[in-house]
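Write out this protein's structure.
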Amino acid sequence: MRRQLAALLLTGAFVAAGGAAMAHHSFAMFDQENPIDLVGTVTEFKFTSPHTFILLQVKEADGTNVIWNLEGGAPSGLIRDGWTGKTLKPGDELAVKVDPLRSGAPGGAWNAAKLKFKDSKPIVTH
């Protein structure tokens, strides 16, 4: 009986942890139905697990500069495509299509296929 109870508790813990992990990796906060185009200057590139981030300074229509916090995939996936922590540097000018935050805050999700330098050159060439 004790062994069955222990197995049941252990199974419950795995199920609970699995749900939390799935919730953490959800991109539900991003509006994937209405992507937007941004052009801006990299202020920081965070090549960290579990997600990468680009802080992109974007000039708004009213002339103000806004820092957009853009969340990307895991470094391990980018490494397979030739990226490193030094692929993007402060001052790099980018053009990117992002899935914006549903909240309207200046943030969104990016992926490498929809990111290029402002002059249309690819970020990574193989």
